[in-house]
Design brief:
Elements: E1 2-12, E2 20-25, H1 49-53, E3 59-61, H2 62-65, E4 74-76, H3 86-90, E5 100-103, H4 104-112, E6 120-124, H5 132-143, E7 148-153, H6 163-168, E8 171-175, H7 181-188, H8 193-204, E9 208-215, H9 222-232, E10 241-246, H10 264-277, E11 282-284
Parallel strand pairs: 2-6, 6-7, 7-8, 8-9, 9-10, 10-11
Antiparallel strand pairs: 1-2, 1-5, 3-4
Helix pairs in contact: 4-5, 9-10
Bound molecules: iron/sulfur cluster (2 copies).
Length: about 280
């Protein structure tokens, strides 16, 4: 069983508790206007634009090599690559040619190299829950080593449809990007119905590690999100951290790239609203 892997960060302290190995899978099911790694959103179409632009000829189209490679249309020669990211900048399809299709065992063997130094793994994306069977198998193997397994998700895939995965997943870090469905749609081109369902489902199962709001007004109805979460899972507010993330423009490719981050004062106002709503674990980042 294989999945497209955008990158593996051996040691991360920002993707859940403790030192963790973070695995980023390629492809997303929504398109956030403020996405800061938009090159993870789509699979490569094989258009060849980046192949022409690579300064060290580290890329080639599969057809040029006369190979019938199932899956990825561009071959990336990692040894030649100088990591200039020109390919990512020129890709018009929100993709990257620097992807590996990896078996569960291959990802697991990368994780095993870090075993003495990590408390667990976190799988992110893109949207990693687009690969539920892959995650289930990976998590089963990783947990057998005594590590915890976390999912970082936009919440747009219904978790209740994958009970086997949820049984081997320790916690989820869930984005709630907007509360009003029209606001959510204008930000992501998708519906937030499943996100709200997942919020309640995960809270009842005590599987929420943190719920995150990227704070940016007026594009995000921040106060409504805080109140909406509080109203939906009121009896579980002590179980998870509410993370208020100040919008940053790094990596953003849409019109939002010129927006400024909210002030510290504004972030504190939102913290105050969260406190009044009953949240006890609040982090501003
Ligand atoms: S990051 Fe690597 S593959 Fe991409 S353009 Fe630069 S050298 Fe080529
Ligand atoms: S990564 Fe983007 S630019 Fe390169 S071949 Fe694929 S779709 Fe085209």
């Amino acid at each position: 069983m294989r999945a497209p892997v955008n990158k593996i960060i051996p040691l991360s302290v920002v993707d859940g508790p403790g030192n963790r190995t973070s695995v980023f899978l390629q492809k997303c099911n929504i398109a956030c206007a403020y996405c800061h790694n938009p090159e993870t959103q789509r699979m490569c179409t094989g258009c060849g634009i980046c192949v022409e632009k690579c300064p060290v000829q580290a890329l080639s189209l599969v057809q040029e090599k006369g190979r019938d490679l199932e899956g990825l249309p561009v071959i990336w020669d990692e040894k030649k690559c100088v990591q200039c990211d020109t390919c990512i900048r020129v890709c018009p399809y929100f993709s990257s040619p620097k992807i590996h299709l990896m078996e569960v065992e291959e990802v697991f063997s990368e994780i095993k190299k870090n075993l003495p130094f990590i408390r667990g793994i976190t799988v992110s994306g893109g949207e990693c829950t687009l690969y539920p069977e892959f995650l289930t198998e990976l998590f089963t193997q990783v947990r057998a080593e005594g590590l915890t397994c976390y999912i970082d998700s936009n919440g747009c895939v219904d978790f209740s449809r994958y009970p086997d995965l949820m049984d081997v997943c320790d916690k989820v870090m869930l984005d709630v990007k907007a509360w009003d469905e029209n606001v959510f749609y204008s930000l992501t081109r998708s519906s937030n119905e499943t996100v709200k369902k997942n919020l309640i489902y995960l809270a009842k199962r005590h599987q929420l590690e943190e719920v995150r709001i990227v704070c940016l007004e007026p594009e995000v109805d921040v106060e409504a999100v805080i109140r909406g979460i509080a109203g939906s899972v009121r009896e579980h507010l002590d179980d998870f951290t509410l993370k208020l993330i100040a919008f940053r423009s790094h990596g953003v490719r849409t019109a939002l790239k010129d927006k400024e981050m909210p002030s510290g004062e504004q972030m504190e106002k939102w913290r105050g609203i969260a406190v009044n709503c009953g949240f006890s674990n609040i982090r501003i980042v």
